[in-house]
Design a protein that fits this description.
single chain, mainly alpha, disordered C terminus
Length: 181
Amino acid sequence: MNADDEREFREFVAARSRSLLHTAYLLTGDWEQGRDLVQTALASTARRWSRLRDRHQPEIYVRRAIYHAQVDRFRLLSWGRKTVTDTLPDPPSAQGTALVDSVVQRQDIMAALRRLPRRQRAVIVLRYFEDRPDSEIAAILGIAQDTVRSQTHKALASLRTTLAEAEPSASSAASGRGDTA
């Protein structure tokens, strides 16, 4: 990579890495896994920087690399393992009930998002968290615009169902915690 290409790449990374990390976090549900995805995508992009056809829109290339890296990682058996512990965290105080409710709601949303198939999750993240148009989502994911719309419809229906089922248990769990503290 020559000096001009390296300067352009560094400027791109400085300007867009925070946004890319947020996208990767929403795709994986984990900050560390998100950082790994961004790192992988940026390393791939750096190797190809001087050969990118459209130098004015490298972000689409990087986002596509993030999405494909995420799909590849889900294929590995060890990627999604959970660690189980035998101790529970301390219960929240009575003052923290509102905070607990918002945390529970956020956890429910993230859990529902993680349950979506990878492509539906990617479409939802790109559409609603990054406010991207169908044409750009299609370009990033390498799919047709009609597929973007159908995946959005299916994902939203699934999220509504999942969150409606989680709502009674979340509110009873939060109120049960508030009563014992």
